[in-house]
Amino acid sequence: MHDAILRQAVSTILAWPLSGHERMAGEAAATTLLRVEVGGVLGRASPEERERIKSVLRSMSGFVQSADIDDAVTGGHWRPWGQMQHFMRYPGRTVADSVRMAVNALWSYTEEAVFLFRRGNTLGAKSSLGRALHGLQDSFSPAHVKRVKGDDGVWVIKDVFEYTAQDSSEHERGDEKYKTGEAEQSSLTELGQATVLASQLLLSYFVQRVLGLASEAGQTRQTLEGAYLREEAS
Questions:
Q1: CB 163 within 8 A of CB 77
Q2: 69 lies in which domain range?
Q3: In the predicted model, is pLDDT for residue 17 greater than 70?
Q4: Is residue 233, in this structure, part of any structural domain at all?
Q5: Is residue 50 part of a domain?
Q6: Is the pTM of this model over 0.90?
Q7: Is residue 114 part of a domain?
Q8: For burial by CB atoms within 10 Å, which of 48, 161, 214, 226 has the most?
Q9: What's the rounded Cα separation, in Å, for the pair 203 and 175?
């Protein structure tokens, strides 16, 4: 009961609503899992590793929400260090600096997840990867980041907002823009669809890294950064 109340409270004020994170992470994980199974990528892993990788992917719809729940308790959303974890403006820093710190945090959590997975700490890997996925998804929320779609279809980052300088109701309205209507399962907007595609790339990168596919992982990271983490502040 306490957890349900906390989830509801957090969902009304922070990030994409928790249900949005859950839905988009779930869709991305399901597609990623299908691709690695059909594509034979998991054939490189031992039976035990395959099951652990599947467990990590299947858990992402839950663990992607942990960042908001944890930071609601610790006050991380109001502290400078918390901004980069939710892809928002670090107080007193430029847009470029804030994007760089947020992207670095994203990859740091991802690499931490790879390290923990290889050490046999599957639960820790889930937590760290969920943090990374959360930050990436936050970068698509209009309450966190201003993006402009270029002629090449890339959603370029133009500005990053500071959480403590925002009106909470405006933040909440911006966070709801991942879907087209009021219903929870309303169709995803273009930004919502882009969030799912970017999430798939991050999850694919994780799988490739834990399986030692360095070249494939490098290409996936390059694609993710070039297509979804490009900053061109005016």
A1: yes
A2: 2-228
A3: no
A4: no
A5: yes
A6: no
A7: yes
A8: 161
A9: 22
